[in-house]
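Sorry to interrupt, but I need a hand with the structure work. Could you write out one complete protein record for me, on any chain you like? Just paste the record in under my message, thanks.

. . .
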Amino acid sequence: MLKRLTGGRSALRTAAAAAALMAALASSTIAQEPGNGTSGRSPSAAGTNPPAATGADYRIGVGDVVEIAVWRNETMTRTVPVRPDGRISLPLINDVPAAGLTPAALRDALTAKLSAYIAEPVVSVIVREVNSFKASVVGQVRTPGRIDIVGQVTVLDAIAQAGGLTEFASRGRIVLLRQERGVTRRIPIDYNRIVDGGGMDNHTLQPGDIIVVP
């Protein structure tokens, strides 16, 4: 009798394990094969995965490198730079404006264009390299030139990255040049006031800003 009970329990455990294995295999198949629901349509239907330094509202700029992935279409999937004219080049649809768009907006634009050639294209846009976040520091600094904007970079940070002011710098006449809607805005900067604790002049830089130190 004891042997019979032991054998019955072992058979039940074996059957339960087999059922769990079959359920796992079925679940894997559903995840891999497209169906009528959204779970099987693509690896990433949302199509955006910008770097941690950027947010969902990040706008692609000239010099950035983006990966365009078209699900189940290796020919269209490629990594491309954003050209100086703000466009990217892809097979079939040729030149597409990219600069100034969010990854999601570029994904939607590509999806609309590819729909003329591919049935229900599923497109992902991933920003692989952020090269457009740059500002310039010119004039009376020790190493004038372009600097990368990584995180929150202020006027004081930029001047420090440029080696600091020279002995000939006019600390009270520094100007921040910023493009806003096609118009250059001149923002006066008083270096001494920033250093003395009046941080109102210590603006956070935006891509394309130019600090002029006379």
